[in-house]
Each structure stands twice: as C-alpha cells, then as structure tokens.
Description:
single chain; alpha/beta
Amino acid sequence: xxxxxxxxxxxxxxxxxxxxxxxxxxxxxxxxxxxxxxxxxxxxxxxxxxxxxxxxxxxxxxxxxxxxxxxxxxxxxxxxxxxxxxxxxxxxxxxxxxxxxxxxxxxxxxxxxxxxxxxxxxxxxxxxxxxxxxxxxxxxxxxxxxxxxxxxxxxxxxxxxxxxxxxxxxxxxxxxxxxxxxxxxxxxxxxxxxxxxxxxxxxxxxxxxxxxxxxxxxxxxxxxxxxxxxxxxxxxxxxxxxxxxxxxxxxxxxxxxxxxxx
Length: 262
C-alpha cells in the first residue's frame, strides 16, 4: 500500500501521516508550498510534506507531474474548511481540486481507492439554531442519534454544498467510470482534544455532538483504507461515540468495521 495524503500538514493529515508511517505504510504527503492553518489552535506539520502541489491548478498542468503516480490509495483532505466561506473562495479549493484529484487518480492506473474528507455539515441544516455550529436539539426528528446516512441531505452552508458535490463526483467516478473505489467520510470536529472545550459558548452542544478524537479519527481512516467496498462507493460518518451525538452510527460501524473508542 502506497498512500498519498493531500492537505497533509493539517490536523487530520499530520495525525494520519504519523500513524500510517508508524504502521510501516509508505505515505506521500502533499500540500501547498506555504500552507495556512485554518484553525488557530493547530500548528501545521510542514515536515510531513514530501510533494508541494496546488491541486486547484489547471489539470493539464498537474498531469505533467502527477503527484499520485505509483500510489494505490489517495486520502483527499485538502480544501477550505470554513462553513462561512464564500462560493468564490470555495470554488478552486473544494470543487476544482476534487475533480482534479479524481482525474489524476484515474490516470495513474494504480490508484484503487480514494478516501474523501466530507463533513458533518451535509445534514445539520435541519438541526441548526440561530447560526452555523449552533445545535437546537428540539429540531431533531426523533431525538439524539436519529439522523443516519440515508436521511435527506440538508446542508447548513455553501461549504457543505461543496462536500455534497465531492460525494456525488466520487459516486460518478466509482460507479460509472469504474475508475476506483470511493469512500466519503462525513467528519466531525477534531480541532479540540476535549469535547467540553467550548463549554459556556453557543457552540458547546454542537461540539459535544460532533466531537472526533484523534484515536477515532485514525481508526475511521484506517478502516476506510482497507474495508471491502462491494458496490465501489461508500459514505460513512467519522464521529466519536458522543452521548449527545445527532448521528446514528450503526450503519457506519457495520460497513466500516470500526467502532469508535471514545
């Protein structure tokens, strides 16, 4: 297994890079030459970068030196992670880049699977309070842990819309093009080590619902790299087993074969 990780300097990328490398897996870390942290609490790990590449550049330019050549798996984490970003900000980083990743992966003839960093925000529009990342439990259809993968999508932001686009693009490349398996993980909130870190703020309950520990993050991604995907396409959650979570994890546990530990 030879795994390329885009956005490797970020919090998930650096965490996964370290774990996979320690497991003896060859990892190719890909990021911008001067990446910018989107979270003030996270220090970028630029030492994990082995290839500098802007995946939003024209595909014809990227094809000249395909960063995924020789890889068997691609973990696509790179992108703009702000729910308040404008469409103009999101277009190159969250839409053009994911198309390029799919095309570049297809052209290698060696990439067998792409794991895509989707988001919990794809279904939180129905539970949103007076602003993004404010949870109103009274809006939950059947109480906590009642929303599942098959619940209709209700994006809470344009950011979430771009992630739905990424999932749809992966569905096309895996099922129609039959280029590779595609696993989309709707990721929770990993920037805090403590789920009570925002206690006393309007986002406190949202964090307690969406919190993802580093240990569970690694577990979900390792499962996504190795689990059998019979229909070539899979969507799952990557959220810890929080008591106040809104997502039902039963299907995710069954399909990925990983049970969150925290």
